[in-house]
Design goal:
Elements (H helix, E strand, L loop, with lengths): L1 H20 L2 H10 L1 H4 L3 E13 L1 H6 L3 H22 L2 E6 L2 E6 L8 H23 L7 E18 L2 E7 L1 H12 L1
Antiparallel strand pairs: 1-3, 1-4, 2-3, 4-5
Helix pairs in contact: 1-2, 5-6
């Protein structure tokens, strides 16, 4: 009995650890089905939401790194909360850019509607955040792009580091639309 309890406690800690570095949906699938089964490559119809901050490069050049980290934390928290509400999986957070999958790793029939809802929420929350952090000299904004289509998702990488990834025209289109927004 003691051994069984220790095993389940260890598994719970492992899942909590994984959830800090993976999307919660991916960590849940890994804990339920195992890494190999949960991350097998598959092609799914899904939606991709890409967002980033406008004016961020100038902002970082003129702002202390501590302040930059504070705004990034607030921005990531707002985007993460919106993604969770809409069933999105954060695929990447890099600098001021965030890439979110809606419909992977958990397929969703209504992925497009959820992605549009997510984009609206990111835009609304982003406007609130950037208004607070902007001043007369440095103005921040938020751009969001959404695209739907067939995307191949799965694990890619080298022996030393693996990453859950998404590849397909919808990923590229969402990123380009975000750049133009």
């Amino acid at each position: 009995l003691v051994g069984a309890v220790q095993y389940h406690v260890t598994q719970g800690r492992r899942a909590q650890f994984l959830a800090r570095f993976m999307a919660p949906q991916v960590a849940e699938m890994v804990s339920r089905r195992g890494l190999k089964s949960a991350t097998d490559e598959q092609t799914l119809e899904l939606s991709v939401v890409s967002c980033d901050l406008r004016g961020f490069t100038a902002f970082t050049a003129a702002t202390s790194s501590q302040k930059v980290i504070r705004i990034l934390r607030e921005y990531y928290d707002a985007v993460g909360a919106a993604a969770a509400e809409c069933g999105g999986t954060i695929k990447d957070q890099a600098g001021d850019g965030v890439l979110i999958l809606v419909g992977a790793p958990i397929p969703m029939a209504d992925h497009a509607q959820r992605a549009l809802q997510l984009a609206r929420q990111i835009r609304e929350r982003g406007v609130e955040i950037t208004a607070r952090w902007s001043d007369a000299d440095l103005h921040l904004g938020v751009g969001v792009g959404v695209a739907s289509g067939f995307v191949t998702v799965g694990v890619i990488g080298a022996a030393s580091r693996l990453e859950y990834t998404a590849v397909g025209p919808a990923v590229n289109l969402a990123s380009r639309l975000c750049s133009e927004a």
